[in-house]
Amino acid sequence: MKVLFMVLAVLILVMGIQIYNLNDKRVTLKRTLSNVNIEVDTLEKENKKIQADMEYFADPVNLAKEFRSKFNYK
Questions:
Q1: How far apart (Å, rounded) are the C-alpha atoms in residues 53 and 2?
Q2: Which pLDDT score is estimated for 70?
Q3: Which residues are CB-neighbours of 57 under 8 A, at least 6 positions away?
Q4: Is the dihedral of CA 42, 44, 47, 52 positive or negative?
Q5: CA–CA separation, 36 vs 30, rounded Å?
Q6: What confidence tens digit (pLDDT) does each residue in 5-62 have?
Q7: CA–CA separation, 43 vs 40, rounded Å?
Q8: DSSP state of 59
Q9: How far apart are CA 1 and CA 68, in angstroms?
Q10: What confidence score (pLDDT) does residue 67 get?
């Protein structure tokens, strides 16, 4: 009977360690996912700004205006 309890105790200990390790990996992955989502949001905002700039500079009037302002061209 003592042997059975010892075996069960060892099994419970091993399972507990495995559960702890899995939970640690889950927390790490959750943190990584959060960081990736923040980076995706940042890149999406940057992409929208670039697209807006492209549309703005596609108009020759705006392009000439920016050229004059940046290079002090008259």
A1: 76
A2: 85
A3: 63, 66
A4: negative
A5: 10
A6: 999 999 999 999 999 999 999 999 999 999 999 999 999 999 999 999 999 999 999 9
A7: 5
A8: S
A9: 92
A10: 86
Q: Degrees (nearest 5) of the Cα angle 67, 73, 74?
A: 120
Q: Distance between CA 54 and CA 59 in Å, rounded?
A: 9
Q: What tokens were used for 33?
A: 């996912």
Q: What is the pLDDT of residue 30?
A: 98
- Tell me which residue of 50, 74, 55, 54 sits closest to 64, measured CA to CA: 74
pTM of the model: 0.65
d(CA 62, CA 67): 8
Q: Which two tokens stand for residue 22?
A: 């899995």
The CA distance from 47 to 51, in Å, is 6
Q: What pLDDT shows up at residue 74?
A: 64
What does the chain come to in residues? 74
